């Protein structure tokens, strides 16, 4: 049984790692022409470019992406937590219509949403600003957060809060010491997925940011257009590192308790 589990784990790890092998080979290749299956010459030129020649620009892109994704994830939680609680615990009329409205930013292509909101952002002075980019990312991330927390609170027992209040706990104490620990796995997953969704946004960032906010996806697509495949592959590997960390953290959180609340 243990051997079978190890084999399954190795198969899953291999299925995840294999697609990145070409990227790793491209990042260390100096010369690689068709029909050769492997590079004809290896070298660290791409990684030297990332960490030395364009180090400050890449680091700035990583920092901008991290800042935008972090602020977006926090704001998504501030919106999604009370909204998910209200939808999951209380009989609000028109839930199906609300679900449809929440799904619209997910169903409609991001390009259409960003193009449609761009004119409004220009009129409001939000175009080409950090705030504007965060707001456009919220249109994609907040619905995911609300739906995740909605599902969590559907399986949440509020009687624990009643017991805490009967023992003299205040509302902030009930929220902090009763509700949050019980729905913490759901909060973790919602925040991590919002972070990841914002981290990977390219078109909406380019349209609303106008190219003035240089996030890592903006730099990555610029390098891909330049035709320098080794450098683009190396930046791609840097780009996916946070995604792997987020997925690992999400998987660990889900495996501990699942997404449900406590009944």
TrEMBL record:
Membrane topology designation: Multi-pass membrane protein
For this protein, the record's InterPro entries field holds:
MetI-like, MetI-like_sf
Domain ABC transmembrane type-1 residue range list: 62-250
User: Which keywords does UniProt give here?
Assistant: Cell inner membrane, Cell membrane, Membrane, Transmembrane, Transmembrane helix, Transport
**Transmembrane keyword on record:** yes
Main localization category: membrane
Transmembrane intervals? 7-28, 62-85, 97-121, 133-153, 174-196, 202-224, 231-254
Localization annotation? Cell inner membrane; Cell membrane
Query: Matching Pfam families, A to Z?
Result: BPD_transp_1
Family to which this protein belongs: Belongs to the binding-protein-dependent transport system permease family.
* This protein's name: ABC transporter permease
């Amino acid at each position: 049984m243990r051997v079978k589990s190890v084999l399954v784990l190795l198969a899953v790890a291999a299925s995840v790692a294999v697609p990145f092998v070409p990227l790793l080979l491209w990042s260390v290749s100096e010369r690689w022409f068709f029909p050769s299956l492997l590079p004809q010459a290896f070298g660290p030129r791409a990684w030297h470019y990332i960490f030395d020649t364009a180090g400050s620009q890449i680091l700035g892109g990583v920092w901008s992406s991290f800042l935008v994704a972090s602020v977006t994830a926090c704001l998504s939680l501030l919106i999604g937590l009370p909204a998910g609680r209200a939808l999951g615990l209380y009989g609000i009329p028109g839930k199906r219509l609300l679900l449809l409205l929440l799904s619209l930013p997910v169903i409609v292509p991001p390009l259409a949403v960003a193009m449609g909101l761009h004119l409004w952002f220009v009129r409001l002075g939000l175009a080409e600003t950090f705030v504007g980019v965060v707001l456009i990312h919220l249109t994609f991330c907040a619905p995911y957060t609300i739906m995740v927390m909605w599902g969590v609170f559907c399986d949440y027992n509020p009687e624990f809060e009643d017991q805490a209040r009967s023992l003299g706990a205040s509302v902030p104490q009930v929220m902090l010491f009763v509700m949050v620990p019980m729905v913490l796995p759901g909060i973790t997953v919602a925040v991590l997925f919002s972070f990841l969704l914002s981290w990977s946004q390219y078109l909406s960032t380019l349209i609303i940011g106008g190219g003035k906010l240089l996030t890592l996806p903006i730099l990555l697509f610029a390098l891909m257009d330049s035709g320098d495949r080794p450098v683009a592959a190396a930046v791609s590997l840097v780009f996916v590192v946070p995604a792997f960390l987020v997925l690992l953290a999400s998987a660990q959180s889900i495996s501990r308790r699942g997404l449900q609340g406590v009944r």
